Amino acid sequence: MQLIRLIAVPFMLCANPALACGIALNTSGILAPSADFTRMGSSEPGGVAATFTVSNTLFGGDFRVTVDPPVLNSAPPAGFNTGTAQYFVSYTGIGLLSFVSQGYTAGSSHFDVPGLLGALAVVMTLHNRITNSSGLASGTYQTKTVITCS
Amino acid sequence: MQLKALLLAAAIVGLAGAAHAQSLSPMRLTGPTPSDIKAFRLTVGNPYKTRMTFLIMPMDAQFRVAIADAIVTAPEIRLAPGASRPVIVKFRIDPALKERTIGVCVLPKDLEGPVLPRVCGTYTGRIGRSGG
C-alpha cells in the first residue's frame, strides 16, 4: 500500500494535462482565373486547394481554430483595382472534423476542435478566392491566410 | 487567351509535402504575483519532421496586435524535429487594474506559402499576496 502510494505520487505529478495544438501546412494551393476574369480561386477550373493538418497532441481539452480571410501576400499586378477587390476563404474537414464546413466568407470564422481528437491529426481543405468587379489584371497573385489555434 | 490565363494563374509553390507546425503548452494559464510583474514559463515544441525556426510574439489577448511591453526570453528559437524548449514571458500589470491578460503566439519564421499557421495562448496575471 505504501509502495503503491509512493509510485503513484510521482506519476501524478508528471501527468500534467497541459493542452497543446498544432497547425501544419501540408500542401500549397494554386489559384486559377474564372472564365470572365473577375474571379480567381483555388476552386476555379485549374485551381488546387491547399491542405493543412490540425492536431491535438493531448487528450482532455478543446481548442479553437480561427481562420482569417486571405490577404495578398505580394504587391498586386499593375492595373489591379484594390478598391473593388474582395477576399474570401472556405474550408472543410474530414473524419473527426467532418462537421466543419465553412462556405466562402470574407470575415474571420472559427471551429472548435474537441479534445477527443487526442494524438490524431485531421487534414483540412482550404480554398481562397479573390473577386474583383473591375476585372483581374494580368500577373501573379499570391494569397496568405492566417490560421490560429488558441 | 491561353497566355493570359497562364499569366493570371498564381503559382503558390515550394511547400508541397512539407509539414510546418508548432505547438505551445499550456495554452491558457492564470497566476498570481506579489508585484506588478508576472512571468509564465511556456513550452514551445516542434512535433514534426523538419528543423524550424519559430517566433514567439507577445500579443494582445485577441492575437491581433503585437505588444511591446512584454518580454520573451527567447523571441526566436530553432528547434530540431520533435524537440521542445521552455521560454519565459514576462509582462507588467497596471496596479490600478490588478489583472492583465496577454496573448502569446508562436509562428514559423520565413514561411512562404498560402497559410500562416499560428498557435496562440492567453495568460493572465493577477496582483495578489501569494504566488509569483
Summarize the structure in short.
The complex is a heterodimer of chains A (150) and B (132). Chain A is mostly beta strands and 150 residues long.
Architecture overview:
The complex is a heterodimer of chains A (150) and B (132). Chain A is mainly beta and 150 residues long. In chain A, strands 1, 2, 3, 4, 7, 8 and 10 form a 7-stranded antiparallel β-sheet that branches. Residues 1-19 of chain A have low confidence and may be disordered. Chain A contains 1 helix and 11 strands. Chain A starts with a helix and ends with a strand. The longest helix of chain A has 13 residues, at 2-14. In chain B, 5% of the residues lie in helices and 51% in strands. Chain B has one helix at residues 2-8, and strands at residues 10-11, 23-25, 28-33, 37-45, 52-59, 70-72, 76-79, 84-92, 99-108, 115-127. In chain B, strands 3-10-9-5-7 form a 5-stranded mixed β-sheet, with no helix packed on it. Chain B is mainly beta and 132 residues long. Residues 1-20 of chain B have low confidence and may be disordered. Chain B has 1 helix and 10 strands; from the N terminus they run αββββββββββ. The interface between A and B is large, with 43 and 42 residues.
Give the helix/strand layout.
The complex is a heterodimer of chains A (150) and B (132).
Chain A: H1 2-14, E1 21-27, E2 30-33, E3 39-41, E4 50-56, E5 63-67, E6 71-72, E7 85-93, E8 101-105, E9 109-113, E10 121-132, E11 143-149
Antiparallel strand pairs in A: 1-4, 2-3, 3-10, 4-10, 5-9, 5-11, 6-11, 7-8, 7-10
Chain B: H1 2-8, E1 10-11, E2 23-25, E3 28-33, E4 37-45, E5 52-59, E6 70-72, E7 76-79, E8 84-92, E9 99-108, E10 115-127
